[in-house]
Amino acid sequence: MTEDLIKEAGALGVYASHYLNLNDRDRAIHRPARQTIPILNTPTSPSPSPSIRRKGNPQSLDTSRLLRGQMSRSTMLIDAMNSPLSLNGSLREDDELTAISAFPISDPVLEAADRSELPAPSSFAILMKLIETLAGKDKLGKVVQYGLRILLFYSKRSTSFLQRTHAEGLKFPTGDYKGIAGVIMGLIQRPEFVALFLLKDFETRAAGVVSGLSMYRQMLRCGKTPFRLVNLAYKLSATASVFANKGVEKGILNVRDKWFTPTTLSDLLSVYYSIFDESLLLFKLGVFGDPRFRRFAVKHEALAWYYNIILGLYKSLSKLSTLKESQNQIKINQQVRQRAKALMRNSVNASSSPRSAVTSSYYNYQSPTLRAVSPSPSVRRGLLSSAASTAAQEEIDELGKQIKNEQIEILKLLCDFVFDTITVFELKVYEPVHLSFGLGAGALAMSKVWMQVKEDLQDS
Protein backbone atom coordinates (compact mmCIF):
# COMPACT_ATOMS: atom_id res chain seq x y z
CA MET A 1 0.00 0.00 0.00
CA THR A 2 2.82 2.34 0.80
CA GLU A 3 4.40 1.74 -2.58
CA ASP A 4 1.08 2.52 -4.26
CA LEU A 5 0.88 5.79 -2.37
CA ILE A 6 4.44 6.59 -3.36
CA LYS A 7 3.64 5.94 -7.01
CA GLU A 8 0.54 8.10 -6.79
CA ALA A 9 2.70 10.88 -5.41
CA GLY A 10 4.38 11.13 -8.84
CA ALA A 11 7.89 12.50 -8.57
CA LEU A 12 7.96 11.40 -4.93
CA GLY A 13 8.85 7.91 -6.13
CA VAL A 14 12.43 8.90 -6.80
CA TYR A 15 12.79 9.94 -3.15
CA ALA A 16 11.65 6.59 -1.75
CA SER A 17 15.12 5.30 -0.85
CA HIS A 18 15.74 8.50 1.05
CA TYR A 19 12.41 9.08 2.79
CA LEU A 20 11.74 5.52 3.90
CA ASN A 21 14.80 5.78 6.20
CA LEU A 22 13.85 9.12 7.76
CA ASN A 23 12.12 9.43 11.07
CA ASP A 24 8.94 11.46 11.45
CA ARG A 25 10.77 14.65 12.39
CA ASP A 26 13.10 14.60 9.38
CA ARG A 27 10.27 13.59 7.09
CA ALA A 28 8.27 16.65 8.22
CA ILE A 29 11.19 18.95 7.47
CA HIS A 30 12.14 17.40 4.12
CA ARG A 31 8.66 16.86 2.74
CA PRO A 32 9.09 16.36 -1.03
CA ALA A 33 7.24 18.23 -3.75
CA ARG A 34 5.51 16.82 -6.76
CA GLN A 35 7.27 19.20 -9.15
CA THR A 36 11.04 19.53 -9.00
CA ILE A 37 13.69 21.41 -10.88
CA PRO A 38 16.03 19.18 -12.90
CA ILE A 39 19.78 19.52 -13.10
CA LEU A 40 20.88 20.56 -16.56
CA ASN A 41 24.57 19.83 -16.30
CA THR A 42 24.44 16.50 -14.39
CA PRO A 43 23.39 13.30 -16.20
CA THR A 44 20.56 11.55 -14.48
CA SER A 45 20.09 7.88 -13.88
CA PRO A 46 16.96 5.73 -13.61
CA SER A 47 15.06 5.76 -10.37
CA PRO A 48 16.01 2.98 -8.00
CA SER A 49 13.65 0.07 -8.33
CA PRO A 50 11.58 -1.04 -5.39
CA SER A 51 13.53 -4.30 -5.25
CA ILE A 52 16.75 -2.60 -4.17
CA ARG A 53 15.19 -0.37 -1.55
CA ARG A 54 16.42 -0.80 1.97
CA LYS A 55 14.09 -2.54 4.33
CA GLY A 56 12.15 -0.40 6.67
CA ASN A 57 8.81 0.01 8.31
CA PRO A 58 6.50 1.01 5.46
CA GLN A 59 3.70 1.80 7.87
CA SER A 60 5.76 4.59 9.49
CA LEU A 61 5.32 6.76 6.38
CA ASP A 62 2.88 9.61 7.08
CA THR A 63 0.59 9.28 4.07
CA SER A 64 -1.75 12.09 5.09
CA ARG A 65 1.17 14.49 5.28
CA LEU A 66 2.32 13.41 1.82
CA LEU A 67 -1.11 14.01 0.34
CA ARG A 68 -1.41 17.37 2.05
CA GLY A 69 1.93 18.31 0.52
CA GLN A 70 0.29 18.51 -2.90
CA MET A 71 -2.38 21.04 -1.89
CA SER A 72 -0.36 24.27 -2.11
CA ARG A 73 1.81 24.99 -5.16
CA SER A 74 3.81 27.70 -3.39
CA THR A 75 4.63 25.34 -0.51
CA MET A 76 5.66 22.61 -2.95
CA LEU A 77 7.99 24.96 -4.79
CA ILE A 78 9.68 26.05 -1.57
CA ASP A 79 10.10 22.45 -0.46
CA ALA A 80 11.47 21.46 -3.87
CA MET A 81 14.06 24.19 -3.65
CA ASN A 82 15.03 23.19 -0.10
CA SER A 83 15.17 19.46 -0.77
CA PRO A 84 18.74 18.10 -0.76
CA LEU A 85 18.00 15.49 -3.43
CA SER A 86 17.60 15.62 -7.16
CA LEU A 87 15.64 13.34 -9.47
CA ASN A 88 18.51 10.85 -9.57
CA GLY A 89 18.77 10.60 -5.81
CA SER A 90 22.05 12.56 -5.59
CA LEU A 91 22.65 15.83 -3.79
CA ARG A 92 21.72 18.96 -5.68
CA GLU A 93 24.28 21.33 -7.12
CA ASP A 94 24.45 24.95 -5.92
CA ASP A 95 23.31 26.27 -9.29
CA GLU A 96 20.28 24.02 -9.25
CA LEU A 97 19.25 25.15 -5.80
CA THR A 98 19.14 28.76 -6.97
CA ALA A 99 17.43 28.03 -10.29
CA ILE A 100 14.19 29.85 -10.99
CA SER A 101 11.06 27.78 -11.08
CA ALA A 102 8.79 27.79 -14.10
CA PHE A 103 6.03 29.09 -11.77
CA PRO A 104 7.43 32.10 -9.87
CA ILE A 105 6.05 32.50 -6.39
CA SER A 106 5.92 36.31 -6.65
CA ASP A 107 5.50 38.47 -9.72
CA PRO A 108 7.02 41.98 -9.55
CA VAL A 109 4.56 43.21 -12.17
CA LEU A 110 1.56 42.14 -10.11
CA GLU A 111 3.14 43.50 -6.96
CA ALA A 112 3.66 46.87 -8.66
CA ALA A 113 0.07 46.85 -9.89
CA ASP A 114 -1.20 46.14 -6.39
CA ARG A 115 0.56 49.17 -4.98
CA SER A 116 -1.68 52.21 -4.75
CA GLU A 117 -0.97 54.83 -7.39
CA LEU A 118 -0.16 58.40 -6.43
CA PRO A 119 -2.95 60.91 -7.14
CA ALA A 120 -2.51 62.89 -10.35
CA PRO A 121 -1.73 66.59 -9.84
CA SER A 122 -4.58 69.00 -10.47
CA SER A 123 -4.70 71.27 -13.51
CA PHE A 124 -4.38 74.31 -11.25
CA ALA A 125 -1.18 72.94 -9.69
CA ILE A 126 0.24 72.17 -13.14
CA LEU A 127 -0.63 75.66 -14.42
CA MET A 128 0.93 77.30 -11.37
CA LYS A 129 4.12 75.27 -11.81
CA LEU A 130 4.12 75.96 -15.56
CA ILE A 131 4.02 79.72 -15.00
CA GLU A 132 7.07 79.43 -12.75
CA THR A 133 9.18 78.10 -15.65
CA LEU A 134 10.70 80.33 -18.34
CA ALA A 135 9.47 78.11 -21.19
CA GLY A 136 5.98 78.00 -19.69
CA LYS A 137 5.75 81.79 -19.52
CA ASP A 138 6.93 82.15 -23.12
CA LYS A 139 4.52 79.55 -24.55
CA LEU A 140 1.55 80.76 -22.53
CA GLY A 141 2.28 84.32 -23.64
CA LYS A 142 2.43 83.17 -27.27
CA VAL A 143 -0.98 81.48 -27.04
CA VAL A 144 -2.57 84.59 -25.50
CA GLN A 145 -0.82 86.89 -27.97
CA TYR A 146 -1.98 85.10 -31.13
CA GLY A 147 -5.43 84.43 -29.70
CA LEU A 148 -5.89 88.16 -29.05
CA ARG A 149 -4.63 89.00 -32.52
CA ILE A 150 -7.33 86.78 -34.06
CA LEU A 151 -10.00 88.39 -31.86
CA LEU A 152 -8.69 91.85 -32.78
CA PHE A 153 -9.08 91.07 -36.47
CA TYR A 154 -12.75 90.13 -36.07
CA SER A 155 -13.35 93.05 -33.71
CA LYS A 156 -12.01 95.56 -36.24
CA ARG A 157 -14.00 93.89 -38.97
CA SER A 158 -17.23 94.14 -36.95
CA THR A 159 -16.53 97.78 -36.06
CA SER A 160 -15.95 98.64 -39.70
CA PHE A 161 -19.19 96.88 -40.69
CA LEU A 162 -21.25 98.79 -38.09
CA GLN A 163 -19.75 102.13 -39.04
CA ARG A 164 -20.30 101.45 -42.73
CA THR A 165 -23.92 100.29 -42.44
CA HIS A 166 -24.98 102.95 -39.91
CA ALA A 167 -22.87 105.85 -41.16
CA GLU A 168 -25.86 108.13 -41.79
CA GLY A 169 -27.93 107.26 -38.75
CA LEU A 170 -25.45 107.27 -35.88
CA LYS A 171 -27.29 110.04 -34.12
CA PHE A 172 -27.98 109.10 -30.55
CA PRO A 173 -31.77 109.24 -29.98
CA THR A 174 -33.07 110.53 -26.67
CA GLY A 175 -36.76 110.99 -27.49
CA ASP A 176 -38.80 112.87 -24.95
CA TYR A 177 -36.56 111.79 -22.08
CA LYS A 178 -33.66 113.71 -20.59
CA GLY A 179 -30.70 112.80 -18.44
CA ILE A 180 -30.09 109.20 -17.50
CA ALA A 181 -33.51 108.12 -18.68
CA GLY A 182 -32.78 109.56 -22.13
CA VAL A 183 -29.47 107.68 -22.34
CA ILE A 184 -31.11 104.40 -21.33
CA MET A 185 -33.92 104.82 -23.85
CA GLY A 186 -31.40 105.70 -26.58
CA LEU A 187 -29.39 102.52 -25.88
CA ILE A 188 -32.56 100.45 -26.00
CA GLN A 189 -33.59 101.93 -29.33
CA ARG A 190 -30.09 101.73 -30.91
CA PRO A 191 -28.17 98.69 -29.48
CA GLU A 192 -25.46 99.07 -32.15
CA PHE A 193 -24.07 101.92 -30.05
CA VAL A 194 -23.41 99.46 -27.23
CA ALA A 195 -21.68 97.08 -29.64
CA LEU A 196 -19.52 99.87 -31.07
CA PHE A 197 -18.52 101.05 -27.61
CA LEU A 198 -17.57 97.57 -26.42
CA LEU A 199 -15.66 96.75 -29.60
CA LYS A 200 -13.69 100.00 -29.54
CA ASP A 201 -12.83 99.53 -25.89
CA PHE A 202 -11.71 95.93 -26.52
CA GLU A 203 -9.53 96.98 -29.47
CA THR A 204 -7.81 99.66 -27.43
CA ARG A 205 -7.05 97.37 -24.52
CA ALA A 206 -6.20 94.24 -26.54
CA ALA A 207 -3.80 96.13 -28.82
CA GLY A 208 -1.83 97.24 -25.77
CA VAL A 209 -1.78 93.70 -24.36
CA VAL A 210 -0.55 92.24 -27.67
CA SER A 211 2.24 94.81 -27.92
CA GLY A 212 3.22 94.22 -24.30
CA LEU A 213 3.25 90.43 -24.70
CA SER A 214 5.43 90.70 -27.80
CA MET A 215 7.97 92.79 -25.90
CA TYR A 216 7.71 90.52 -22.85
CA ARG A 217 8.49 87.41 -24.89
CA GLN A 218 11.44 89.14 -26.55
CA MET A 219 12.79 90.12 -23.14
CA LEU A 220 12.56 86.48 -22.05
CA ARG A 221 14.69 85.50 -25.05
CA CYS A 222 17.21 88.34 -24.93
CA GLY A 223 20.68 88.24 -23.42
CA LYS A 224 21.97 85.08 -25.12
CA THR A 225 23.82 86.71 -28.03
CA PRO A 226 27.04 87.63 -26.14
CA PHE A 227 27.42 84.13 -24.71
CA ARG A 228 26.83 82.50 -28.08
CA LEU A 229 29.43 84.76 -29.67
CA VAL A 230 31.93 83.87 -26.94
CA ASN A 231 31.35 80.14 -27.50
CA LEU A 232 31.94 80.54 -31.23
CA ALA A 233 35.10 82.55 -30.50
CA TYR A 234 36.42 79.76 -28.26
CA LYS A 235 35.65 77.20 -30.94
CA LEU A 236 37.39 79.29 -33.59
CA SER A 237 40.41 79.76 -31.32
CA ALA A 238 40.65 76.00 -30.73
CA THR A 239 40.61 75.36 -34.48
CA ALA A 240 43.31 77.99 -35.04
CA SER A 241 45.51 76.38 -32.39
CA VAL A 242 45.16 73.02 -34.18
CA PHE A 243 46.39 74.63 -37.41
CA ALA A 244 49.31 76.24 -35.57
CA ASN A 245 50.41 73.26 -33.49
CA LYS A 246 49.50 70.18 -35.56
CA GLY A 247 49.74 71.39 -39.12
CA VAL A 248 47.38 72.10 -41.98
CA GLU A 249 46.26 68.51 -42.46
CA LYS A 250 45.13 68.11 -38.86
CA GLY A 251 43.55 71.55 -39.00
CA ILE A 252 41.47 70.64 -42.06
CA LEU A 253 40.31 67.47 -40.33
CA ASN A 254 39.37 69.53 -37.27
CA VAL A 255 37.35 71.94 -39.42
CA ARG A 256 35.54 69.03 -41.04
CA ASP A 257 34.77 67.32 -37.73
CA LYS A 258 33.93 70.40 -35.65
CA TRP A 259 32.42 72.95 -38.05
CA PHE A 260 30.57 70.95 -40.70
CA THR A 261 28.09 69.45 -38.25
CA PRO A 262 24.41 70.11 -37.47
CA THR A 263 25.41 71.32 -34.00
CA THR A 264 27.70 74.05 -35.32
CA LEU A 265 25.15 75.04 -37.95
CA SER A 266 22.52 75.32 -35.22
CA ASP A 267 24.86 77.54 -33.16
CA LEU A 268 25.49 79.84 -36.13
CA LEU A 269 21.79 80.14 -36.95
CA SER A 270 20.99 80.83 -33.30
CA VAL A 271 23.47 83.72 -33.30
CA TYR A 272 22.03 84.98 -36.58
CA TYR A 273 18.50 84.98 -35.18
CA SER A 274 19.28 86.38 -31.73
CA ILE A 275 21.20 89.38 -33.15
CA PHE A 276 18.23 90.67 -35.15
CA ASP A 277 15.64 89.61 -32.58
CA GLU A 278 17.37 91.61 -29.87
CA SER A 279 17.87 94.50 -32.30
CA LEU A 280 14.09 94.71 -32.75
CA LEU A 281 13.71 94.72 -28.97
CA LEU A 282 16.08 97.70 -28.79
CA PHE A 283 13.90 99.46 -31.37
CA LYS A 284 10.85 98.94 -29.17
CA LEU A 285 12.76 100.24 -26.16
CA GLY A 286 13.78 103.36 -28.10
CA VAL A 287 17.52 102.63 -28.22
CA PHE A 288 17.59 102.41 -32.05
CA GLY A 289 15.55 104.66 -34.31
CA ASP A 290 16.79 104.27 -37.88
CA PRO A 291 13.78 103.08 -39.96
CA ARG A 292 15.99 101.57 -42.68
CA PHE A 293 17.85 99.38 -40.20
CA ARG A 294 14.51 98.45 -38.64
CA ARG A 295 13.20 97.15 -41.98
CA PHE A 296 16.49 95.27 -42.50
CA ALA A 297 16.25 93.71 -39.00
CA VAL A 298 12.62 92.66 -39.52
CA LYS A 299 13.47 90.92 -42.80
CA HIS A 300 16.52 89.04 -41.48
CA GLU A 301 14.84 88.12 -38.20
CA ALA A 302 12.14 86.31 -40.20
CA LEU A 303 14.77 84.66 -42.44
CA ALA A 304 16.86 83.50 -39.48
CA TRP A 305 13.80 82.02 -37.82
CA TYR A 306 12.88 80.30 -41.09
CA TYR A 307 16.31 78.66 -41.32
CA ASN A 308 16.13 77.57 -37.68
CA ILE A 309 12.74 75.95 -38.31
CA ILE A 310 14.07 73.95 -41.27
CA LEU A 311 17.08 72.75 -39.27
CA GLY A 312 14.83 71.91 -36.33
CA LEU A 313 12.60 69.79 -38.58
CA TYR A 314 15.64 67.89 -39.85
CA LYS A 315 16.93 67.20 -36.33
CA SER A 316 13.50 66.20 -34.99
CA LEU A 317 12.82 63.81 -37.86
CA SER A 318 16.25 62.20 -37.41
CA LYS A 319 15.70 61.83 -33.67
CA LEU A 320 12.21 60.40 -34.21
CA SER A 321 13.61 57.78 -36.60
CA THR A 322 16.31 56.82 -34.07
CA LEU A 323 13.80 56.52 -31.23
CA LYS A 324 11.44 54.34 -33.25
CA GLU A 325 14.32 52.10 -34.29
CA SER A 326 15.40 51.68 -30.66
CA GLN A 327 11.84 50.93 -29.57
CA ASN A 328 11.38 48.32 -32.30
CA GLN A 329 14.68 46.68 -31.36
CA ILE A 330 13.61 46.39 -27.73
CA LYS A 331 10.24 44.97 -28.76
CA ILE A 332 11.97 42.35 -30.92
CA ASN A 333 14.27 41.41 -28.04
CA GLN A 334 11.27 41.17 -25.73
CA GLN A 335 9.46 38.86 -28.15
CA VAL A 336 12.56 36.66 -28.42
CA ARG A 337 12.79 36.58 -24.62
CA GLN A 338 9.12 35.60 -24.32
CA ARG A 339 9.52 32.75 -26.80
CA ALA A 340 12.64 31.51 -25.03
CA LYS A 341 10.78 31.80 -21.74
CA ALA A 342 7.92 29.71 -23.10
CA LEU A 343 10.36 27.05 -24.32
CA MET A 344 12.06 26.98 -20.92
CA ARG A 345 8.69 26.58 -19.20
CA ASN A 346 7.78 23.68 -21.48
CA SER A 347 11.18 22.09 -20.89
CA VAL A 348 10.85 22.35 -17.11
CA ASN A 349 7.29 21.05 -17.16
CA ALA A 350 8.25 18.11 -19.37
CA SER A 351 11.20 17.21 -17.15
CA SER A 352 9.14 17.35 -13.95
CA SER A 353 6.06 15.44 -15.13
CA PRO A 354 5.42 12.04 -13.39
CA ARG A 355 6.58 9.01 -15.39
CA SER A 356 7.39 5.42 -14.77
CA ALA A 357 10.92 4.43 -13.90
CA VAL A 358 11.79 3.44 -17.45
CA THR A 359 10.17 6.52 -19.02
CA SER A 360 11.83 8.82 -16.49
CA SER A 361 15.15 7.16 -17.17
CA TYR A 362 14.74 7.76 -20.90
CA TYR A 363 13.73 11.41 -20.63
CA ASN A 364 16.08 12.35 -17.82
CA TYR A 365 19.13 11.15 -19.69
CA GLN A 366 20.95 13.88 -21.58
CA SER A 367 23.75 13.30 -24.00
CA PRO A 368 26.96 15.30 -23.59
CA THR A 369 26.03 17.33 -26.68
CA LEU A 370 22.68 18.38 -25.20
CA ARG A 371 24.32 19.22 -21.89
CA ALA A 372 26.87 21.37 -23.71
CA VAL A 373 24.20 23.48 -25.43
CA SER A 374 21.89 23.68 -22.42
CA PRO A 375 21.60 27.20 -20.96
CA SER A 376 23.45 27.91 -17.78
CA PRO A 377 21.51 28.65 -14.59
CA SER A 378 22.28 32.37 -14.89
CA VAL A 379 20.84 32.43 -18.42
CA ARG A 380 17.78 30.53 -17.22
CA ARG A 381 17.28 33.04 -14.43
CA GLY A 382 17.49 35.87 -16.95
CA LEU A 383 14.98 34.22 -19.28
CA LEU A 384 12.50 33.26 -16.60
CA SER A 385 12.79 36.43 -14.54
CA SER A 386 9.83 38.79 -14.83
CA ALA A 387 11.98 41.69 -13.59
CA ALA A 388 13.81 41.76 -16.93
CA SER A 389 10.50 41.92 -18.79
CA THR A 390 9.32 44.70 -16.51
CA ALA A 391 12.50 46.71 -17.14
CA ALA A 392 12.14 46.23 -20.89
CA GLN A 393 8.51 47.36 -20.77
CA GLU A 394 9.48 50.44 -18.76
CA GLU A 395 12.12 51.29 -21.35
CA ILE A 396 9.55 50.86 -24.13
CA ASP A 397 7.14 53.18 -22.30
CA GLU A 398 9.87 55.79 -21.81
CA LEU A 399 10.77 55.67 -25.49
CA GLY A 400 7.07 55.99 -26.28
CA LYS A 401 6.93 59.24 -24.29
CA GLN A 402 9.96 60.59 -26.11
CA ILE A 403 8.44 59.62 -29.47
CA LYS A 404 5.23 61.44 -28.56
CA ASN A 405 7.20 64.56 -27.59
CA GLU A 406 9.09 64.50 -30.88
CA GLN A 407 5.87 64.09 -32.83
CA ILE A 408 4.40 67.13 -31.07
CA GLU A 409 7.63 69.05 -31.76
CA ILE A 410 7.42 68.19 -35.47
CA LEU A 411 3.80 69.37 -35.65
CA LYS A 412 4.77 72.59 -33.88
CA LEU A 413 7.64 73.20 -36.28
CA LEU A 414 5.35 72.55 -39.25
CA CYS A 415 2.93 75.21 -37.96
CA ASP A 416 5.85 77.63 -37.51
CA PHE A 417 7.11 76.75 -40.99
CA VAL A 418 3.76 77.58 -42.64
CA PHE A 419 3.40 80.78 -40.60
CA ASP A 420 6.89 82.04 -41.39
CA THR A 421 6.66 80.99 -45.05
CA ILE A 422 3.69 83.36 -45.43
CA THR A 423 5.67 86.11 -43.68
CA VAL A 424 8.95 85.67 -45.57
CA PHE A 425 7.44 85.41 -49.05
CA GLU A 426 4.64 87.91 -48.30
CA LEU A 427 1.89 85.57 -49.46
CA LYS A 428 -1.68 86.85 -49.60
CA VAL A 429 -3.49 84.66 -47.09
CA TYR A 430 -6.60 85.32 -45.03
CA GLU A 431 -5.18 86.80 -41.83
CA PRO A 432 -7.02 84.58 -39.31
CA VAL A 433 -5.72 81.53 -41.19
CA HIS A 434 -2.20 82.95 -41.02
CA LEU A 435 -2.53 83.70 -37.31
CA SER A 436 -4.11 80.31 -36.58
CA PHE A 437 -0.82 78.59 -37.49
CA GLY A 438 0.98 80.74 -34.94
CA LEU A 439 -1.71 79.93 -32.37
CA GLY A 440 -1.42 76.21 -33.16
CA ALA A 441 2.38 76.29 -32.78
CA GLY A 442 2.04 78.01 -29.41
CA ALA A 443 -0.60 75.54 -28.19
CA LEU A 444 1.50 72.52 -29.23
CA ALA A 445 4.62 73.95 -27.56
CA MET A 446 2.62 74.66 -24.41
CA SER A 447 1.27 71.09 -24.40
CA LYS A 448 4.85 69.77 -24.36
CA VAL A 449 5.73 71.96 -21.38
CA TRP A 450 2.46 70.96 -19.70
CA MET A 451 3.23 67.23 -19.99
CA GLN A 452 6.78 67.76 -18.72
CA VAL A 453 5.59 69.76 -15.71
CA LYS A 454 2.92 67.14 -14.96
CA GLU A 455 5.50 64.36 -15.07
CA ASP A 456 7.83 66.31 -12.76
CA LEU A 457 5.02 66.85 -10.25
CA GLN A 458 4.14 63.15 -10.30
CA ASP A 459 7.76 62.15 -9.71
CA SER A 460 8.26 64.65 -6.88
TrEMBL record:
Disordered: annotated segments: 33-63
Domain of life, per lineage: Eukaryota
GO biological process: peroxisome fission
An annotated GO cellular component: peroxisomal membrane
Identification of the protein by name: Uncharacterized protein
Organism, scientific name: Kuraishia capsulata CBS 1993
